[in-house]
Amino acid sequence: MYGGSSDGEGGGHDASSAAPAAPQKKIPPASSMPWVRNLRRYIGTGAGLGSEALMELETKRILLEIFKERQQKNAEAGSIPSFYKKKPEEGSISHRVQRLAKYRFLKKQSDLLLNADDLDAMWVCLRENCVIDDATGAEKMNYEDFCHIASVCTEQIGPKCRRFFSPSNFMKFEKDEAGRIAILPFYLYVMRTVSLTQARIDMSELDEDSDGFLQPHEMEAYIRGLIPNLAQLRDMPPAFIQMYCRIAAHKFFFFCDPHRRGKACIKKVLLSNCLQELMELHQESEEEVTDTEQAENWFSLTSAQRICDMFLALDKDMNGTLSKQELKEYADGTLTEIFIERAFDEHVRRSKTGGGNAREMDFESFLDFVLALENKDTPEGLTYLFRCLDLHGRGYLTTADIHTLFRDVHQKWIEGGNYELCIEDVRDEIWDMVKPADPLRITLSDLLACKQGGTVASMLIDVRGFWAHDNRENLLQEEEEPEEEVTRLASQRAVVIFSKSSCCMCHTVKTLFSDLGVNTAVYELDEDPRGREMEKALAKLIGQNPPVPAVFIGGILVGATDKIMSLHLGGKLVPLLRAAGAIWL
């Protein structure tokens, strides 16, 4: 086919100079031409190569194998693959194209979402085409019903609902002996998927560099956009909106940005309890709510104003930052001096300008400080506090560290006119509470595992925290009446269940709310020291004994199992949960 040799020898002879009777040149052996050997390996002698399409597929397969072979060699050689790609410059053509592509993609995803009318239509289709379980009265569907409902919904709503009716989605739900699933968990799954997708689209629109993370100003913009839709924030003074967004956004970064990179992962934000807590403000607060109850939700207007007032009261010189001396007045001066020192050492940045007051706590650091103290039992809060307790930065506490930390608490304790303490006894009690894996040291993992890490931290940094632990039995006796305690606990969350861990009906109700995706507060009366008194109070309220499970929604008693199941089967439970802010997705 070719007049010259394949390796370039004899390249000076062109086709016109080749004589027909010239002797044929010898072809080099296949070993000297790897491409020939490889080609023969895959296509043989050339006979029966097939169509052009087959040749193209074969070529792609060969190239893919060569690529994989090269990748394997690179990995064996220890070469580092490229992991950094420079982002396009602001205003460049590639940057504009990227923004346009992102806008079109998000617009397409938004158009594929079901709206409120679509969701209502789907719920009607589900209820009209399901069957009632004779044993439980629950509305269920088998796979044939599932496929039929999919066809009906597609006709009424359009093809955008089809993706929810895939076989894999049907298999996700718990089935009974007849292979049927309940329609309500499926419908709530659709609602949650739609709402989470919408929230992700909204956040992605604010993600300027499209890296899947939100920066503080982007998170603040997202919260600002939610304010008009949150019933408890609609009347916020316009002058306070910027400060509120700053305070609210900071909690997301405290819990979703543990390494303090200034970027919160959108996926992590969507799945965090912080977003659930923020969405509880959808609930209309028709009844009077005390300032204390409102302050328990970080995102409430009352809580944000409390934080601002606290900072302004501590900032005596009104320079916008807090010195160590000013911070000592926090919580009426009950925090120990060594803890304040350690908080500044570990969590307060040095001033870039230097000078006499080189290290003062700004408002952002103050928010971290407050969040850690108010969330001592969470891994994030306890991690913050443990860094302060770890005096030598070794990752663990020794008996000497405990002695040093508690010495300041002991001093404040004596100054308050309390009885004399033996520090060694307190140290031994802490060791008994934590039960560390290594008997000579306490690590952060030990504090998290013992479920009493927040109490231990309070005992070592706050004389009031130690007093509460020391008087825990007396405090239980002096607590409010059982009726008052039930009312108080019932109003703390959107859905509260008073239960017994051994009660099968309680388990059924808890499972129902869990399947609905409701974040409930459950109080197991058989595990509470005052459980019997509270059970009697509930029996009076409900008018039956035993009173459990007793379910409160929006602070209002709904009833026990029969009432909950009646509402559930009548399709009234979900609207009730929506009105209470228990279901926002």
UniProtKB/TrEMBL annotation:
GO molecular function: calcium ion binding
Keyword Cytoplasm: yes
PANTHER family per record: SERINE/THREONINE-PROTEIN PHOSPHATASE 2A REGULATORY SUBUNIT B'' SUBUNIT GAMMA, SERINE_THREONINE-PROTEIN PHOSPHATASE 2A REGULATORY SUBUNIT B'' SUBUNIT GAMMA
Alphabetically ordered keywords of this record: Calcium, Cytoplasm, Redox-active center
Domain EF-hand: 194-229, 302-337
Region (Disordered): 1-31
Ranges of compositional bias, category Low complexity: 14-31
Organism: Dioscorea zingiberensis
Signal peptide range: none
GO cellular component, one term: spindle
Biological process annotations from GO: cortical cytoskeleton organization; microtubule cytoskeleton organization; regulation of dephosphorylation
InterPro entries referenced in this protein's UniProt entry, alphabetically: EF-hand-dom_pair, EF_Hand_1_Ca_BS, EF_hand_dom, GlrX-like_pln_2, Glutaredoxin, PPP2R3C, Thioredoxin-like_sf
Family to which this protein belongs: Belongs to the glutaredoxin family. CC-type subfamily.
Protein localization: Cytoplasm
Protein name, per record: EF-hand domain-containing protein
